[in-house]
Automatic annotation (TrEMBL), chain A:
<comment type="similarity">
    <text>Belongs to the iron-sulfur cluster assembly SufBD family.</text>
</comment>
<protein>
    <submittedName>
        <fullName>Fe-S cluster assembly protein SufD</fullName>
    </submittedName>
</protein>
<dbReference type="InterPro" id="IPR000825">
    <property type="entry name" value="SUF_FeS_clus_asmbl_SufBD_core"/>
</dbReference>
<dbReference type="InterPro" id="IPR045595">
    <property type="entry name" value="SufBD_N"/>
</dbReference>
<dbReference type="InterPro" id="IPR055346">
    <property type="entry name" value="Fe-S_cluster_assembly_SufBD"/>
</dbReference>
<dbReference type="GO" id="GO:0016226">
    <property type="term" value="P:iron-sulfur cluster assembly"/>
</dbReference>
<feature type="domain" description="SUF system FeS cluster assembly SufBD N-terminal">
    <location>
        <begin position="33"/>
        <end position="165"/>
    </location>
</feature>
TrEMBL record, chain B:
<dbReference type="InterPro" id="IPR037284">
    <property type="entry name" value="SUF_FeS_clus_asmbl_SufBD_sf"/>
</dbReference>
<dbReference type="InterPro" id="IPR000825">
    <property type="entry name" value="SUF_FeS_clus_asmbl_SufBD_core"/>
</dbReference>
<dbReference type="Pfam" id="PF01458">
    <property type="entry name" value="SUFBD_core"/>
</dbReference>
<dbReference type="GO" id="GO:0016226">
    <property type="term" value="P:iron-sulfur cluster assembly"/>
</dbReference>
<feature type="domain" description="SUF system FeS cluster assembly SufBD core">
    <location>
        <begin position="220"/>
        <end position="462"/>
    </location>
</feature>
<dbReference type="InterPro" id="IPR055346">
    <property type="entry name" value="Fe-S_cluster_assembly_SufBD"/>
</dbReference>
<dbReference type="InterPro" id="IPR010231">
    <property type="entry name" value="SUF_FeS_clus_asmbl_SufB"/>
</dbReference>
Automatic annotation (TrEMBL), chain C:
<dbReference type="InterPro" id="IPR027417">
    <property type="entry name" value="P-loop_NTPase"/>
</dbReference>
<feature type="domain" description="ABC transporter">
    <location>
        <begin position="2"/>
        <end position="246"/>
    </location>
</feature>
<comment type="similarity">
    <text>Belongs to the ABC transporter superfamily. Ycf16 family.</text>
</comment>
<dbReference type="InterPro" id="IPR003439">
    <property type="entry name" value="ABC_transporter-like_ATP-bd"/>
</dbReference>
<keyword id="KW-0547">Nucleotide-binding</keyword>
<dbReference type="InterPro" id="IPR017871">
    <property type="entry name" value="ABC_transporter-like_CS"/>
</dbReference>
<keyword id="KW-0067">ATP-binding</keyword>
Amino acid sequence: MTADIQPIRTAAETALAEAFARFKQPLPAGEIARRDAAFAEFHKAGLPHRRVEEWKYTDLRAAMREAKPLAEPNSAAVVAMAKTAIAQFGSLGAARAVIVNGQYVQDLAQAADGVEITPLAAALTESSDLLASLGQSGAPASNTAVALNNAFASDGVLVRMSSRTKTTLHLALHQEGDHASYTRIVVAVDAGAEVELIETHTGSGAHQTNTMVEILVGEGARVAHYKLQDESRETLHLATLAAKLEGGVNFSSTALTKGANLARQQIFLTFAGEHSEAVLGGVSLAGARRHLDTTLFVDHAVPNCASRERYKTVLTDDARGVFQGKILVRRDAQKTDGQMKSDALLLSESAEMDLKPELEIYADDVVCAHGATAGAIDDELLFYLMARGIPRAEAETLMITAFAGEVFEGIENDAVRDIFVASAQNWLSNRG
Amino acid sequence: MPAVQETVERVRQIDVDQYKYGFVTDIETEKAPQGLSEEIVRFISARKEEPEWMLEWRLDAYRRWLTMREPTWAKVDYPKINYDELYYYAAPKNFVAPKSLDDVDPELLRTYEKLGIPLREQEMLAGVEGAGSRVAVDAVFDSVSVATTFKKELAAAGVIFMPISEAIREYPELVRKYLGSVVPVTDNFFATLNSAVFSDGSFVYVPKGVRCPMELSTYFRINERNTGQFERTLIIADEGSYVSYLEGCTAPQRDENQLHAAVVELIALDNAEIKYSTVQNWYPGDVEGKGGIYNFVTKRGDCRGRKAKISWTQVETGSAITWKYPSCILRGDESQGEFYSIAISNGRQQVDSGTKMIHLGKNTTSKIISKGIAAGKSENTYRGLVSAHRKATNARNFTNCDSLLIGDQCGAHTVPYIEAKTSTAIFEHEATTSKIAEDQLFYCQQRGLSEEEAIALIVNGFVKEVLQHLPMEFAVEAQKLISISLEGSVG
Amino acid sequence: MLEIKNLHASVEDNEILKGLDLVIKPGEVHAIMGPNGSGKSTLSYVLAGKEDYEVTEGSATLDGEDLFELEADERAAKGLFLAFQYPLEIPGVATMTFLKAALNAQRRARGEGELSTPEFMKQVREKADGLGISTEMLKRALNVGFSGGEKKRNEILQMALLEPKYCILDETDSGLDIDALKIVAEGVNALRAKDRGFLVITHYQRLLDHIVPDIVHVMSKGRIVRTGGPELAHELEAKGYADYVGAAA
């Protein structure tokens, strides 16, 4: 038998192929070739399912029964709704880029010194040199979410940040409607720059979103990245954060994830220069039958770098949490210090947590560790609080807040910390 | 880093001389024709004088095996095995099961003596102080059991300990009831292959309320060239009984790889306890990775009764490739599973080993302590699963896996899967990877220890928590084995 | 009045309390002494409402109200306080946050208004000073990294702040050196009042030199087997518990 085996395509896979065929038509020839290659990466294996190791606990094929149509161009009404939603964050930073339904909205943007923003759609039509920065962050092109973003993302922003005094960019992403949208953001941080990136995701409707954020961090730069994922509870949220760090960099990324019906946050972190430090952290909160997945890959490719990963998941009802975290220490990466910890608190009998912390180590002079726990609230502690007169629900809230608080403590931006804490409290009072 | 530099130098000098069990016994052998087919399965079954049901069971396994694929998920890399080039059965020529130890071929007795396994009961008694520490041995040579000691004394206590080929004939009801009940015929590629062609291994049945009066042990030896060994062990501990079982193994040095695909099934009923210890010392291959045993083993215990307990302890130092996950199914309420492991890899060895703790019953507990030591150019992976079923209320697991790297040409990996499907489960997992700290070494050396002694001391400290779970006789042996395995990597 | 009648209680089907009777009136300080395993700590947990303990017979009332009908927090709000033998560590919850949450929860439950932050701070400051508890300590996570003495002082601070009607001190002296013991005892003595009852559980007479009880009970095998004045504690110190081990069988 030499004939190729043609896998049976699901309805969603067929719809994606059809949507892609229509999507690529108006593109220039060179661009079509690039997109074709990306779509082929997706198409050869199709939507991943539980027998695909990296998607073992998040069966995308089962979760994605249909592929939603690509978003229409934004109407004035949609932009107005986005504007209102984003107003809740006030002025988080000097600069702001707003992306609604995967499309950059110039009218809502805010400029600042040291922040050059080029809309991706514009760069594509002009075949700008800036396009060369796409796909340089170390995210594997074969990954399903990455491949789909490579194939479909036609808007977003290409940003260059150069200020040596701390400059904050608010990346506000908003969705309205039952569509599919793909957004690509590339942030190049110059050597020695100091920046904060605050990514917020809000919206309403039952959409499918795929966002890919690439951060290229130059020598000696300091970058603090924050992500608030508060999308509608009906959405399918696929997100990729890929960061590549040159030497002497200080990088952090902290996330609060509470939106979406199914969310998969992937983080690919690559140490490309020595003496860099990275701190990754996140809190995921889910109830109902929602499913939140955080999957990390930390690649210590060079010596003398340190990474810290601290993740917390709180689940109630029939919710399911997934944490997969892999630290790879390559042969040359001596003196690596990698510590990963993931803890889950299960508030209801039928919640489920799957943890897969992983170490793959080829250098001997390293200190690496991971830890993982899953369990209910400690009865002894609960009794202690109740014996002091604190009612059960309040005592639980206090303990959950403390549990999640360990991640929030590290947030240096007061406004962001306040938003995260308030947003988490808001979830706790409804536990949805 | 002088220590590392020196280690690397030493690794280069690794020599197969360190494997002390690499000799070949010169004995005439009868083999099945090369390759695998229904005829071969029938041949093996006929040689074992098996009943019809057993042959059918094997044929069913064989047919299913033909439809299966070799697993690729483990972090091991080896050339494709050609299953048609292997011999699936080899036995000393004109072999008849010995009626007593006096009937055993002297050449075989000499072989086991050389291996340090005396089969003459008197010698055992003379060699060991105190009657409490006697060990009954079943010696398996290629595809047949050549001797079993202390049979009579065990029989007096009601304990059945015999080659499984004999048990199939003598206790067909027991074997039929339990064989394949823990590791189903179609469990995985290698287990299915084993089900089709297994040749020998041990059968143990400990009746209700009996505490087995001595340690039971099986010693496996592969001798013949190009021959696979497919051992099958079945241990049943009836209600309230206790048994401690030890397993050892060696093979000659040969340039080609040899396959060992074993299946071990343990069944512990209400309040029963099985302690299963392994010191695995198959030929690991030479420094360039030539030769050595492919050790693809399926070991699983079923805590079928309430308050049953199964404890696995393993010291893995041999084999070119180890693919092995002794597991516990914690089915009975309040049952307990334990896994204590030391896995040492050196030269070009590849180890992918760990355990599965499947919590099904209420108030079940499990504990995993794994110590991996990688040296030379070896790869050493811990892979484990801890899961709690929705109904496994109050399941508890504690896992600790630590890895130590010696030299910068090896790899140590940890791949745990933790699945909590009930909030009442409490799972704790911790893992670390490090090297021997320079200041620890310095401290020891400053107190007058050589570097070699210092490393041996530190490594012994590193694995101590596991060693103490081995029966005394084995612990001493294992400790020696550990320092031999690390020779050349350590200095 | 804290009134316990014929109390039987079990843990995992093992009966620990086997018909215990005890009445504590406001203003009284009672001590319960007894050998290890006599059920002293079980009594404190059963009264405070720990879940793993099952009351199989008997009653306990606080000023006429059935304690066993109430959750642990409701009992606390009614004025029952347990100073734990081993106070728990709660990472991430600042001691100050915890104190405020507890005080306000009790005030709410009693229909009193919550304290404003300045009022609350003032109260805590006053009471903490007397116990040698620094502001820095109050900012740290509850009991995390506290020494044995600091933990016990923190328990007394909570007692002082929450102003309970009945206080149970479970082996408060365990793990304390003599200086720490004095500070803790002074803290307790300062809270002695006409309208407040105490139950001091201890293995050793030592604590009772500093907190002098009105009535001393000897407990063995889940029951009170003897009752007397403070002199009983001295007698026990001299003769040990040998006479009582097996006495109640």
